[in-house]
Amino acid sequence: MKAKTKKVIRSAAKAGVKPVAARTVAKPAKKSAAKPVFKAPAPNVQAPEKSTTIALESIRKEVAALRTQLAKNMTPVTSGTLEEVDALRRVLNDLMEARMNNVIRELVTIRNAAASAGSNARQVTEQMDALLADLGAMKFEAERLEYVDPLIHAVTREVTDTSLPDGVVTETIRPGFYTGHGIVVAKALVAVNRRA
Amino acid sequence: MARLGIDYGTTNTVVVCADRGRYPLVPHVTDTSIGRVAREVFPSMFVYDTATATLRFGAEAERSLAEPGAAQRYIPIRSIKRRFRDYVDGMRFATDAIPGGLDMRDTFRQFTRAVCTSVRTSGMIGREEPLEMVLTWPANANGAQRHLTRSAFKDHGFTVIGTLNEPSAAAIEMADRIVNGNRAKARQLKMTIGVFDLGGGTFDASVVRINTADYTVLNSAGIETLGGDDFDEALARLFCEKMKIDFDSLPPFHRTLLLIQSCHEKERLSTGQSRTLTLDPEEIGLDGNTVKVTAAAFEKRLAELIEPAVEKLAEVITAAGSDDLEMIYLVGGSSRLPVVSKLIANRFPDIRLFTTDKPFTATAMGAAIHSSETVRVHEVFARHFGVIRLADHGTREVFAPVFKAGLRLPAPGEAPIITDVQYHPRHNIGRLRYLECTSVDAAGKPAAGLRPWSEILFPYDSGLAVNDALHPDRIIPRDDLASIAVETYSCDSDGIITVQIRRSDGQSRTFEVFRS
Description:
The complex is a heterodimer. Chain A is of the alpha+beta class.
């Protein structure tokens, strides 16, 4: 099977797919064949520094402390009126769901920046993945040869391989993330086969 | 029993559920290869499949556009909400792209069925659970539009327990937001606010007085033809200028993709992600190099489009006569554009602006709150509504108010307002020209803010049948008509005005009167 890379584009182009994730990172060079699509916006990350590891650990501890604090705060309110309990439940719900989605989005951006720095930042990437998992964000990749789904994939590269069907994923360039509630906070960036 | 607030928007449809004091968004859930994924909104766009002559909605519509050969097979159609204001029975649309076009009512019924299915499969609502809802529509929606919207949702199992004008719903949500969701505190709130509701297709402005659980609309007006769609097109045209192509001559498929991409770029500006708007022609299936439009250039164009809305808000505030306006609430997805708050802040430097990070959910959330507790909304006639009549034996025209400005609309469940007018006809055919205005001069003529409503022809001459098709050319003076005509006006809680005209022989006909 001989795969020939045709061209690189920034998004799903003719397919009409919005490259949401692509926009949040660096723009790839236009039509530069078979080159990596994303450049790292991050500076040279030589190795996972100790301070980075401590910072990530600190974030994880803060999240745990926040959860404990919220749980404690809930206790006395249960003696209040039903409306007070409902109101607090609403505020907490907003904080924990809506706000958390935004936090996760930002963390995914940082994680991707680290990932694009290459093997030097592998440990940072792994720790970020663990932190995201702690926060309920699940990583996913496209299955090879599945059809492109604009709900979860953003096309960033087109290749031509006449032995494969048109419109199937040939490679996952960067994983995507979704929350426990099914909100896709980052689509998986994929290469797609175009026969024509 | 689930209670919902639904905002059928030009760009997105938002559903919020009232759940024991919480008002969560009902997600639009779709099965994918990674499992079920959820989105906060149900897209109002859809596609027509030329191969099967069927429509696809929601996520299926978006997936269709990503299929190989989509340009040849699918015709994407952005929302039909804007076309509702011209709706008449049997109306068809998209006739330029689809032979014979699509039936408006049937298309919207299919859309509401898709929304209903989405709600049922969201996981938040039981599949057999009865659904009650409060539905919203633009403050300036006419009766046909309201009827079409309401009946389509009813047909798919929703029980419509209430309706709200969109700015009124937003006011309810704002009160809730001010008190951080404490409904007990919300019911103690007393303040007057302005609502600047700039959505995808329409603009509404209202001044609302909040007095505990009573929300009284002091004045309201809007622009039916201004919204995010216009901003998308403005940006699309700027991109076309850069690409040196004619926007109007683009094939429908490419034009729609260009508008969708322009919408996404506009949203990046709204969320502060970028100050440069870019378009790769390949994204819309065209050749060429990437083009860029600066935010400054786009905002200059936007300012021209948004200025009339800001002026309309100023008119509404002035006409409301309220000197205790505390803040202006910016709602609707398009209000997130930085230029909007900048223009309003410049125009009203002494009034605080109140914004939200999710302006597109405010209306549906207000409707959901309204569905679950006693919040009384009192809409009023913001303007004089009346008809041009002939006076002094037909020698001069006068404006005869039917419902005067400030008159309170009946609350849901209350009897409609009824008023009768009797007169001696002076012509064989009556030509009733309805209009609204903000003031009347000493001579009884509309002085400001004049806006025409529908025009009705009715035969006073018993020799003509009441259902005959009439033409103004056939009107002739008839001093010999000894009959008396009676017009009975009725206005219901939705603001729908009808008139029944009855002549001496007992023949009558009922018309709906709406803004033209």
